[in-house]
Specification:
The chain has eleven helices and ten strands. By secondary structure, the chain is an alpha/beta fold. It is globular, with a radius of gyration of 19 Å.
């Protein structure tokens, strides 16, 4: 199976504080991969290192076959066109319309005409289940669910191979969250992309995540399918998955553990 991301012995320090101390994981092509962990375990930090917003103190990260250590400006720009990012609260530019938000990368990285950009904007809106008229609205005029979908349309603007999602269902009502999960699976299947998502949403973890890594104590304490992870005896894993509420809610899926 083709590995699209490999993280080897990552160490992350902020001053005297160590966040990661030898983190290792790999992400396979076309899978939905979850990253979860205790508060302060560095989940978002790790994702920022994958997308070159932060640089680890030590270790190596390979994305789509390229090492991020000492990467050239040209290769870095090329890689950025190969991934899209949905940040936790959407991070749409409030002064731009939805259409203008989606166009940002198209203007920066391509030379396509305004007419073609308009066509692409409409196609991306349709892809995430938004009507064409939403393109003329500003973020402040959108519901929480629409903000997520508009931000997802922006993340898909460059037809990426990788999609990074930071807590994609946070702030959504249960129905909206499950609809968003279904959309992620549909997009993965339709576009053949690899999805990396930070999440604490148990429904997402049990229903759409193929494999996951659990961060705790500065390391990956469990990695693999939900069945593999549930075999871990690490205190955080047991507290997160094996509490009475979770065992009752997902008893059909963890009954053999």
């Amino acid at each position: 199976m083709n590995r699209v991301i490999e993280i080897k012995e990552i160490v992350t320090r902020f001053g005297t504080r160590t966040i990661h101390d030898g983190v290792n994981l790999h992400i396979n092509e076309n899978e939905i991969y979850g990253i979860l962990g205790e508060s302060g375990s560095g989940k978002s930090v790790l994702m920022k290192e994958m997308i070159m917003l932060l640089e680890p103190s030590a270790g190596e990260i390979h994305v789509l076959g390229k090492s991020l250590k000492g990467i050239s400006f040209k290769d870095a720009q090329s890689l950025r066109c190969d991934w899209g990012v949905l940040f936790q609260f959407g991070a749409l530019f409030s002064s731009l319309t939805v259409a203008e938000n989606i166009e940002v990368q198209l203007k920066e990285y391509t030379n396509i005409s305004p007419m073609m950009r308009g066509n692409l904007v409409r196609s991306k809106l349709a892809l995430v289940g938004l009507d064409p008229h939403v393109g003329a609205l500003y973020p402040s005029e959108l519901s929480g669910g629409m903000v997520k979908r508009a931000a997802l349309a922006r993340a898909l603007a460059m037809e990426p191979k990788l999609l990074f999602l930071d807590e994609p269902t946070s702030g959504l009502d249960p129905i909206g969250a499950r609809n968003f999960d279904a959309l992620i699976v549909e997009l993965r299947n339709l576009l053949g992309i690899t999805v990396v998502m930070i999440t604490h949403d148990l429904d997402s973890i049990f229903s759409i995540v193929d494999r996951m890594a659990v961060l705790a104590d500065k390391h990956v304490v469990a990695e693999g399918s939900i069945e593999n992870v549930l075999q871990s005896q690490h205190p955080f894993v047991e507290e997160f998955f094996m509490n009475e509420y979770t065992k009752e809610r997902f008893k059909d899926k963890i009954k053999d553990v």
